[in-house]
Amino acid sequence: MTRWPNPTRADLDRYCQTEGWTPVRDSRGRTGTRHVTYEFGLPDGSTLRTRTSHPPDRTDIGPALWSHILRDQLRVTEAEFWSCVKDGTRPQRAGNVETRESLPAELAYLLIHRVGLSDDEVADMSRDEAVARLDEYWITGA
């Protein structure tokens, strides 16, 4: 089992900056001096929030609080956290994959039922490829 160092508030701050979290400002436009609150928008539309405090004694984050921060606020494993802090490797989050524009339903229907393509063939086509293939069908009949 890998032994991780005790996390500090500076580590948490570095993580948030590396992954691209946004500091949240209060109603007067300030970010605060004792606490810095960060937000991070996920691809599913939800938003994560975490806060780094600056206590006078600069203590490490305790194990129970650290577990809560990783699990509920950052939603990453400890390995992902330390990889981001030390190497700058941002965590892979669900939904970070490139999404393609879907085909209009009528276009997909025509390709499958008129042209005779399979569902998988149509799913792999870009919009331009699908239109070109349908044009070819209308011109040549094949």
Provide the domain count. Answer: 2
User: SSE order, as H and E?
Assistant: HEEEHHHHH
Estimated share of beta-strand residues = 5-15%
Helix segment tally: 6
Major beta sheet summary: 3 strands, antiparallel
**Which regions are unreliable across 5 or more consecutive residues at pLDDT < 50?**
none
Radius of gyration: 24 Å
Give the mean pLDDT: 84
How does the overall form come out from the CA principal axes?
elongated
Query: How many β-strand stretches?
Result: 3
Strand order in space, largest sheet: 1-2-3
Q: What is the share of helical residues?
A: 40-55%
CA-CA gap between termini: 61 Å
SS content category = alpha+beta
Q: Can you describe what's shown?
A:
With 142 residues, this protein is α+β, with helices and mostly antiparallel strands. The protein folds into 2 domains: 9-87, no CATH class; 105-140, no CATH class. 44% of the residues lie in helices and 11% in strands. It contains 6 helices and 3 strands; from the N terminus they run αβββααααα. A 3-stranded antiparallel β-sheet has the order 1-2-3. Strand 2 (35-41) and strand 3 form a beta hairpin.
Task: Put the structure in a nutshell.
This protein is about 45% helix and about 10% strand. It is of the alpha+beta class. The protein folds into 2 domains: about 80 residues, no CATH class; about 35 residues, no CATH class.
